[in-house]
Amino acid sequence: MKLQDGIVDIYMPDMKYGDEQTARELSGINSYPQANRAAVKEMHRQTGDLEIDKEGIAQRGLLIRHLVLPGGLAGTKTITRFVSEEISRDSHVNIMAQYHPCYKALQIPGLGRRISSEEFHAAPHFAQETGLRPLDRVHVAEPLPTLSE
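Request: output the structure for the sequence above.
Response:
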């Protein structure tokens, strides 16, 4: 990461899991939260908070992505607290709802279903409770046109 200092303008890391046990059980990853947090801290040190121009285009900074998982498995509370307290309350966090279980996820207790509306809408609430301010707004997507239209 340090070798990229001064080269990268915008970082867009994922923060997948808030705790070690979940990362190990779901993805077979040891020390994920520690490594992920250290990397995100370094990214923020290099580029700072996300800077957006008057046209709404990101110019420089950190944009964190977080996918909400069923049953709180992603650790949204833990992640938003970390970002607020150890990165910046002005961090942009893209809270994503597109989790879709497939393949082996269907065999793992807790991952075999899509997230509920309540689970998704709780995530921005958790972020606000920790003091994060500029969150992505939740938009209802317009239906995509079909190829015949």
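Strands lie at 10-11, 51-52, 58-67, 92-96.
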